[in-house]
Amino acid sequence: MSDTHAREDSLRRSLGLNRRQFMAATTGMAAAAAIPLALPGAAQADPAPVRDERSALVPASQRGIILYTVRDAISRNPLTSPLPSGFRKVFEALSAIGYAQVEFAGYTQNANSEGGANLETVEGAQLLRTWLDDNGLKAQGNHGFIPGSWPLSQADLDRFQRTLEIANIIGMQHIGTGSDPTSSNFKADWDVAIEKWHALGQLAQAAGLKLYTHNHDAAYNFLLDSGPLDAQGRPTRSSGIRKLEYFLSQTDKHLIFLEMDLFWAHVAQYKHTLFTAPDGSVQTDIFDPFTLVRDNQKRYPLFHVKDGKLNPATANGYDMVPFGTGDIGYKEFFNRVKIRDKHHPMYEQDNAPGGTANPAQSLDFARLSYENWAAMKEDRFYE
After folding, report:
1. What Gene3D superfamilies does its record include (predicted)?
2. Residue 41 domain-assigned?
């Protein structure tokens, strides 16, 4: 068996697919040799396939990836591995696959990579911008520092201003965080978070950037804002509004933006369906993430396109899988929310790294996911 076929079989088994399912997931390629995987020493050199993009559901210019997906490659020691290591080589590999945009998840890499361990400096940001430009990549955002305290301390203010400066050097349009505005269920805490985010949003706007929050399923649970109070004087029931919907309704549309992770939004659809109304009755409400985005498109400049395979045996209802191999209706989503230059979807897969058993897996999955994404066509396309 050739190395390429062995790699295909390993990748197929890790996805839990039979050969026919695997071939379908990779857009029906005739042979595994036609699937350009991230082979040692070659991933950054493989040319991107030539495709007819006229009917693409998402333009090639808008297909991005959050670097958290390939964090193992970024942190890999280039002295001990032939695989792409560090930001510069990973950018080369992602550009060769076809990605046009990236979202950062911090600015650290292996200390032996070019530029050193920490690039969260003016000099480091200048290096990153050079490497992005060299590979035709555009940075759109970062999951970085948002002050936890309110009011802001001088130290928090100084660090946030440095975060904005670095984002501008790198050439971003957005700056954000991977966390909810608050983890609390109570309206009073969300009101404090709203005040803080407005202040931060004004600072970001002054720097020419859009501030955004990225959210997991908990943010789509129901806000405790009514009913009898508990022993600490906090409400115990809900009017039926979800926490993030309240945040959305109470924040300035010109200052505060959001990044929906479609996987976690579907987990919320699965998990957060019941609330206790002010009169004590239990009500059912099924979350529709597609409609929320459609009705607030200007508030959602970024998305995480993370796929999931239905699995009712798990608490979340889904298992994370490479894009295009799961059950989340991305074709429907992209048909309802047209992706052009105002939207920036980023492929993400939290469990992409394969560890020592399969150190190339995250880049393999990045390539497989890109191929599946590129194969998605508009429902109607006319010559």
Report:
1. Divalent-metal-dependent TIM barrel enzymes
2. no
